[in-house]
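Reading is simple: the token line describes the chain's fold. The lines below illustrate.

. . .
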Amino acid sequence: MKWIYVLLFTHIISFAASSQQILKGRILEPVTESPIPYATVYLANTTLGTTADENGVFSMEIPSGSFEVIVRMLGYESATFSIQSNRLPKPGYVIFLKPSDTELNEIEVEDERDPSWYKNLQTFKLYFLGNSKNASKAKIENEKVLRMDDQSQKGILRVTATKNLKIHNPNLGYYLDFQLEEFQFRSRGSTYQYAGYPLFTEEGDLSKSSLRKIQKNRLEAYQGSLQHLIRSLHQGIASEEGFEIRRLYRIPNPDKPADSLILQAKKQYDSTSSETIKSILKRDFLDKESLPDSIDQLEKSPIDPKILLSRDSESNTFLEVDFALHVTFKLESEPREYLGQNNPRKPGPQISTLYFQNKKLQIFENGSYPDPFAILIDGYMGWEKVADLMPLDYLPPN
């Protein structure tokens, strides 16, 4: 584990008013408490960042929402901590960075890799960048900082990086400085998960025609995304923004016999000599043992999204759900890349399923929520990956 700790300047915590959204603090050595000058401080998944001055002091205005703050300096381990814009301490933070033990030139990144590394690289890019039209143009400019491990555990590919990934996404006009924390791909079932902290930087020196195209691509990437959904839910305008939401309940699978009946059928199967009876037992019981215990049942009628919301005395907004959400975004069709080139099906609306780990989840007006693992996503929103990611401070036209 990294040695990271954050202290307040004073022993008394006083919270800033909601209109005073200033993130500030000082960055110090942990032993001597001397300042660390010119460290980088940024909000993950945004374009917002700053640099500490020669005394290690920093200050920056931030929008409303929940964010991960990343503090980085060459020769030190990065610090990461969570904030909520309406609960910032007025005195600011003291952040201690531990000197890094890693040798800067420990690995020659230009060394040639073996064939398995290049094969794993393709798997990583498919499940990290994605296979959308934006992903087809996105490029990791320093691929060889990636370390592939497919030997420690059979069927699992783990990927780490010795340095931040430098990603150019020309379709959306961004450069991403991505601090990859973990990536894991399981070949069985093709399941994956990754975590990290990207900083977005606007691509400069664009012609007017290029800028118009990029703005169109950004709006398309934003519309129908999880960020768009959470923002519109927070504002109470999800239906107006094109989202249609239904309850999705999990019920016992009516096609699967009870475990006791399956056990009884197994005993009878072993004791009988009749092939006819064996065939019936196999068809009606034994072959159904592998069926899932439960299935999803979708309500026919959409719900009013506003019934999902609650607010406390401090005007904090929460989603309260005890079921999964079946979300249809009606204003855009599924792209061909999502369906697959050989899929004859006609594109339909974008459909996603959201599974909530807790019945009550705080959400913020910028489309964020405190726990990044609070929502499990299946369907279209889960198909979109890093190459379709938009920063939390993005604002669509109008």
